Amino acid sequence: MVRAFFHWIMGHKKLVFIYLPLMMIMLAGAYTGYVYLSWLNDREEALNKLFKYKTLIDRTEELREGSTYSYSDIDLKAKVVDIPTRIYDRNDEIIGEFFEQKREIVPYGHIPQWLVKAVIASEDRDYYRHRGISYRGIFRAFLVNMTRLRVVQGGSTITQQLAKVLFTDMDRSIKRKIYEAFCAHEIEKRYDKQDILSMYLNLIYFGNGAYGVESASKMFFGLSVRELNETECAMIVATISNPLVYSPLSNLNNSLKKTRRIMKSMVEAGYTKKQRADYQYDRFLKKWDVVSDEKGRAAKSLIGSFVFSTYRVNRAPLFCEQVRRVLVDKFGEEAVKKGGLSVYTTIDAEKQDAALNALREGVLKQREYHIKRAEKMKNPVKAQEERDNAGSIEGALIAVNPFTCEIVSYVGGYSFSSQNQMDHVTQIRRQPGSSFKPMVYAAAVEDRVITPSSILNDERTTFKGGYSPKNYDGKYLGKVTSRDALSKSINVVAVKVLEKTGYSTLFRFLKRSLDLSGAELDRRFGKTLSLALGAYEISPMECCVLHAVLINGGQYVKPYGIRHVKDYNGNIVWNSEEESLREIAEKRNKTGTIIDTVAAAVTVSMLKGVFEEGGTAHYAVKWKKIDYPIAGKTGTSSKFNDAWFVGYTSDMAVAVWVGNKRGAISLGAGRAGGVISAGIWADYISRAYGRGKPGPFREPDQGLTHQTICLDSGMVPVEDGVCPRVARDELFYSGTEPGDYCPLHKKELTVKEDNK
Question: Which helix (H) or strand (E) holds 174?
Fold first, then answer.
C-alpha cells in the first residue's frame, strides 16, 4: 500500500510538488488578505483605543489635585480599561473599593528594571531586535515544542501579546494569530519599546480580578511594584502565562517552580549571575516564610496575606455600602464599578478600626455568653434556641462630631456579607430604654422644673392611669438628688420628672432634632409616661443625633459621611460636603436653638455622674486610663432585650447598641447596657484617643454658674472633706444654684471641731 502511494506521487509530481503547494499558498494568501481587510476595517477604532490607553498611563505622572469644581459626567466611553472606585478616609487613607476588575496603572518609571528584565528573558528575548514579530522566536519555540513533544514555549512577542489582550477575542485560531501580527506591526510603527512595555505590564491579567503589575504586587506582597526585589519581580512574571496554574494564591508550589525557571532565564539572558540568583531566591523563601509539606512541596507562606489581597478593601463595610448606594443613585452602577472615582469621606480610619474591633469583641462576648448557657441546659430544645440566639446577636456603633456633623466611625453590624446586609445603624429601630432619659431631664432643666440638686423621692409609685414603673434592681432609695437619680438611672424619678415637666418642650426637642413632621412625631411617640423610660423605638443613628444636640449646645445635627468625589483625572465632580453644610446651616437658621444652650450644658454635666462610683457605667471605665472629660448614659429595654450606651466626649457623640437581630429576644438576665454596650464604648474611646485627648465640654459664656454640691443633700458643702459624696463644679442656670450649706453633714463638722 505504501509502495502504491509512493508510485502515485511519482506519477503526479507536478500536482503534488507544484500545483497543490501553489494552491495552498494562494489560499493562505487569500485568507491573509481577508484578515488584513478585516484589520483595516477595525484599524482606526483599535488604534484610537490604544491611544486612549497610552494617554491614561501618561496621566498617572501628572494627575491634577484639587481642580476646579465641576459637575461634569463621568466619561466611561473615553476609557479603555475599568478602574475601581476608591473610598478614602479624612486623612486620604483607603478604606474601601468598588470594582469588577482590579486595575492600578503606574508609569514606566515606577516599574523596576528587574521586572522588565524578567519579562524579556522569559517572554521575548528578541524584544529589542524585532519589529513586532520574532521569526527566530517562532522557530525556537517550534524546535523546543517538538523536542518536548508538548507545547512548552509560545512564539508570540510581547507586542503580539499586547495586541491580543487589547484587540482580539482571545480565541485560539489562525485568524487571531494573523490579525494579531498586523496589530503588532502597527503598534511597533507608532510606539517605542518602552511605551509598549509600559502598556503591556499595566494591562495583563494576574488572577483574582487583578490587572497590571502594580495590582499584582500589592495582591501578592502588599508592596508597590517599585519596591520589589528581583525574585519578587520573577514571581510576578511567572504568573503571566497562566494565573490559574502559576499564581502563588492558587498554587504556591507551581508558582515557586516557575519563579525559579524565570530566575534561570535571567541568568541565561545575562541579566544576573547564577550565584546571585540562587542567593536572592533563598532570601525570598525566608522573607516570605515559605513552609514545605512532608513531600517537599511548598504548602504555605506569607505571600498574599494582606488586606489588599482580598481585593475589596473594606475597613468600614456598611458605611462603604451606604456610600455605594448614594454614588449609584448619583452616577450610575457602571461609573461606580468602572469609573475610577475617588470618594473622600469624613471617616477616621484609625478610629474606624478601633470601632470595628471594639464592637466585634463585644458582640462576640455576648454570643459566647449564650453558647455557655446552652451548654449548661439539659433540655435540648431550649439549648438549641440558646445557640440560635448566639448566632443572632448583632450590634451597631456610630460616632459623630456634634459640631461639624461629620461621621467619624460607622459600624453597622458584626459583619457584612451577601447573607448579612442589614445596617443596624440606620435600618433598625429599638426601644432605647434609659438612654432616652437625658432628653427628659434636659427638657425639665430648661423649663426650670429641676436643677441638678433638686431632691426627688424614689419610692414605689402608681401614677395616673395605673402606671406603676419599677426600678432596675427593684429597690427604692428614698430622697435623692436629680443628678444622682440620672446617674443611677432610677426609673421612678425619671417618670416623676416627665410628669412634672409635661410633653411640650420634650416633643419640640424630638421634632426638631429628628426633623419630623407633626404627623410623624405623633405616630412615633406617644404622650405617655413610659416615654421617660424609652418605650418608643428609635434607631442608633437617631439616638446618636439626640445626644449630639446636647453636646453642641442645642444645634441641629444631620450626620454626613461624604466630603467630595473626584473622577479619575482628579476633577471634583461632586462636592457633597458643601451641600451638606449648606443644608445644615439653613436648617439651623430655620429651627433656631433646639434646646437651650445652658440646659444642654447642665444635662451633660449631670451625665458625668454615670461614670462615678454608683453610676451605671462606673465599672466600664474603672480600669481604663481615661483622663479626659466624659459623660454618657446607659440604656436597657424591658426584659434585657436591647443594651444601649451613648458616650460623650467634647468632640464625639457615640451610640452603641447590642441586641438580637430577630427582634425582642432577651440577652439574658442582668445583660444590661452598662454591662455590654458601655464596655464596647470604653474600649472604643481608649483606642480612638490613643494619640490625642479631647478637651473639656463646651459651655456657654453667660447664664451659667459652677457650684460644688453634696450628692446626698443637694446643698453646698461647708468645706472640703466634710460631705462624703460631692459633685465638683456642677453646672446650674445662674441664680438656681443652691444657696444653703449641707444640713446633713453639719453635725459631723461640729463633732470634729469639738474634738480638736
Answer: helix 174-190
